[in-house]
Write a structure and sequence with these properties.
Blueprint lengths: L9 E2 L4 E2 L12 E4 L8 E2 L2 E2 L5 E12 L2 E19 L2 E6 L14 E4 L4 E6 L2 E7 L6 E5 L8 E9 L3 E8 L4 E8 L3 E10 L3 E17 L2 E6 L5 E11 L2 E9 L5 E2 L5 E2 L2 E12 L2 E2 L3 E6 L4 E7 L2 H5 L3 E10 L6 E4 L6 E4 L14 E6 L14 E12 L2 E8 L2 E6 L7 E6 L4 E7 L3
Parallel strand pairs: 7-21
Antiparallel strand pairs: 1-2, 3-18, 4-5, 6-7, 6-17, 7-8, 8-9, 9-10, 10-11, 12-13, 13-14, 14-15, 15-16, 16-17, 17-18, 19-20, 20-26, 21-22, 23-24, 23-25, 23-27, 27-28, 27-29, 30-31, 31-32, 32-33, 33-34, 34-35
Length: 432
């Protein structure tokens, strides 16, 4: 294991940070500490009650021979249950990192008035960690993974700021280190398993903490960032439904929630849309997605009444991350709207020459504000063709070739694509 004060870094594709939270997202860190409450179950180094909620970044390296594998994820650890024994309240955590194996039996813990962390055993209190003093010492404590007491060492890893507790257990000579920072609480965990042929190193570093210590006394620590809107592809399969293909990301990915199942850290996504013409704006309508996928298709209904009257469809996105310390943002970020102007190229279909090329405004993007480059879509009509005894008009639109059937009586045009084995209908044109 590399030196604690050395170059060991915890990183993923979105975030690079050491254990103390120094990162490229430093400007996003919010750290609020209210006056210490003596009624809370804890001290300056750890507070434990029913409001405790935290998120850790985990990086695991497994090595065997000349091969190795690295996994990275974000894990939620929060209070999921409590029990009262002998007049004392104990709390169970969804993902206990206190024992030798993170993710094993969680146990029930309480912080005593003597500033010691106790594990509930068969006979009641069993000392786990002594946070009442900062001196360097060795004592015996109990964990959920060992039948007897383990020898635990305590020292100040950062003088006056951080306590380090270390212990080992057999049969694999595992070493575990737990770190508690003054004013934050439990902030990091190291687990190292050496052997002759392989090794296992797993580190956990704090990203989020939320605890209500008492009335008007709340502890917050956050490195949370807003959801990122990475890609937006516009397409219209039918004129009754405008399709937006959206890609979103959050740095906390993959995220293992308190239920120990994988979730998306973006909790909510909203699509607001309305119709606009100079001098008039419709009521804003909203589509909501709960725990949206990183890649999703958004179908925005097209109101033909507004479209026929020349209104443009305006829309924007809003997103909110999970708790604790939720963050919200929108796209476009400046509060403006994206716009889709409808100009139907088939209004006078029978009057168009069979060999022609026209341009119409499909959607409007403002240079320098939005990231999708667009302008005028060109519809190219290359003539008519017979396929399997049926007459189709050939369209080239947005880089795709379509075969269109049109009824002079006013019925909607039907759009097909040829797959090599036959025609597949892909949409309708409802605004003739």
């Amino acid at each position: 294991m590399k030196n604690r004060y050395g170059t060991r870094q915890l990183s993923n594709n979105k975030l690079t940070s050491n254990r103390y939270g120094v990162s490229l997202l430093l400007t996003l860190i919010t750290f609020i500490i209210f006056p210490f409450s003596t009624s809370a179950q804890g001290n300056e180094y750890f507070v434990l009650n029913e409001t405790y909620n935290s998120i850790f970044y985990n990086r695991t390296i497994s090595t065997w021979g000349n091969s190795s594998a690295v996994t990275e994820k974000y894990i939620e650890m929060r209070v999921m249950d409590d029990t009262v024994v002998g007049g004392q309240k104990y709390y169970a955590l969804t993902k206990s990192m206190f024992g030798p194996l993170a993710g094993g039996p969680t146990g029930y813990y309480r912080m005593g008035e003597d500033n010691k962390l106790y594990l509930l055993g068969g006979a009641g209190d069993q000392l786990f960690l002594d946070l009442s003093d900062t001196s360097q010492t060795t004592f015996y404590g109990f964990t959920t993974h060992a039948s007897g007491a383990l020898q635990i060492s305590r020292r100040q890893s950062i003088p006056g700021q951080e306590l380090e507790f270390s212990f080992g257990y057999t049969p694999y000579y595992d070493r575990v280190k737990l770190y508690f920072q003054k004013g934050k609480g439990f902030t990091a965990r190291d687990h190292y398993t050496p052997s002759a042929l392989s090794s296992f190193t797993s580190t956990y570093s704090i990203r989020e903490i939320f605890t209500v210590r008492g009335p008007g006394d709340t502890l917050r620590y956050t490195q949370n960032a807003p959801t990122q809107f990475l890609q937006r592809k516009l397409d219209r399969i039918t004129d009754s439904s405008f399709l937006v293909q959206l890609v979103i990301r959050h740095p906390y990915s993959p995220f293992i929630a308190a239920s120990l199942t994988q979730h998306i850290y973006t909790d909510k996504l909203w699509v607001d849309y309305r119709y606009f013409i100079p001098g008039d704006t419709s009521v804003t309508r909203t589509i909501e997605f709960t725990e949206p996928k990183d890649t999703l298709e958004v179908h925005i209904p097209v109101d033909s009444v507004y479209a026929r009257r020349g209104y443009s469809l305006q829309y924007k996105f809003r997103a909110k991350t999970r708790e604790p310390n939720s963050r919200s943002n929108s796209f476009p970020a400046n509060g403006s709207w994206l716009a889709q102007s409808y100009k139907n190229p088939d209004t006078a279909f029978v009057m168009l020459p069979r060999q022609s090329s026209i341009s119409y405004k499909k959607y409007r993007i403002r240079p320098g504000i939005d990231t999708v480059a667009a302008g005028l879509e060109t519809l190219t009509i290359t003539g008519d063709t017979m396929v399997s005894g049926k007459l189709y008009r050939q369209y080239y639109l947005g880089g795709q070739k379509y075969f269109v059937q049109y009824s002079i009586t006013g019925a909607v045009a039907r759009y097909f694509m040829y797959t090599g084995t036959g025609m597949v209908e892909v949409g309708l044109d409802s605004l003739q």
